[in-house]
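Tutorial handout. Part one gives the primary structure; part two gives the three-dimensional structure as tokens.
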Amino acid sequence: MSYEFIEGNEAVARAAMKAGCNFFAGYPITPASSIFQSMLDLIPSTGGMAIQAEDEIAAIGFCIGAAMAGRKVMTATSGPGISLYSENLGLATIGETPMVIINVQRQGPATGSATKGAEGDIQFTRWGTSGGLPVIALSPASVAEAYELTYHAFNLAERFRVPVTLLSNKEVGLTRERVDLDAIKLPPRRERIKVAEDEAFVPHGFQSSADVPVMADIGGEHIVRYTTSTHDQVAKLTTNPEIIGDMLAHYNNKIINHVDEITRVKEDFETGAQTLFISYGVTSRSVAAAVETVRRKGRKISSLVIQTLWPVPEKVILEAMQGIKKVIVPEMNLGQYLLEIQRLVPANVELVGINKMNTTLISPRQIIEEGGLL
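Part two.
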């Protein structure tokens, strides 16, 4: 074993290198800046490149260009930077551009509290670009999970040709923990599937709408068209409603039809339990402590920790609610993921949201008291 005492942001950078990241662009912003510093330290030794852009808009633009030229790319920011990323995230979506975005969340809105944590960007991540297309977003609760899920984010970005967001936060990113990164089991690294040099290339080619097109590097042997406007499979602009509808169905179905493959959760179920916690991110650690306390008192209780926030793992959530009478959803916001659970919970099940948005963590005691588990 080889234990280290590192923070979540450093673990993110280390995972990016493990996943084959060879391009990083960012702009310093608390509490994400140590990811930038770690990438500046790590990436040059592998022949990669780390750039400080003039602002966040340029940073994500650099990443789009590098990704389409064949690089595995990552950027990292927080609150205001995510807002500035919005337009280019739409470009990356319509251009089917694989990239990883790290959002180390802090208290908002606007510049908010730069040195304080929160998890208030959950719905913004889902709906923060025009068009309303589905996204992939993962949520770690610890340094080890920041490492593991960042690695998975790269694999998912390459698998589905999409931007993938890691929704970390200040508490995960800037907290140091003892961790053995080498002991974390990871799947094989997914490499980009590219068209052969002697094959015809269609930039957005698919047979079934859920197919993921192969890629070609801009500047290589093939002509690669890339546009921010509605286009057909060869990336030529179009106003044809049927073609536009087919392309939008493709962007949607290549994610929605593979929800089971994308879904990552942690289950701690107890037979006979009638109360279920559903949590994510750093708050799931307080939930784990609350579950332990309640069980010591002889009460049965179950817990579902969601690591894939988007797309919503509806099938898993519905299965977890079988036989449940009360569902408790604690969040470091005013109830953003509760809205997704509300759509799924049966009419005879009580739904309780426990919310806190004052920059401090939700404690196990608060969860137990407000959840009616005393």
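Part three, for discussion. The chain has a mean pLDDT of 97. The two ends are 40 Å apart (CA to CA).
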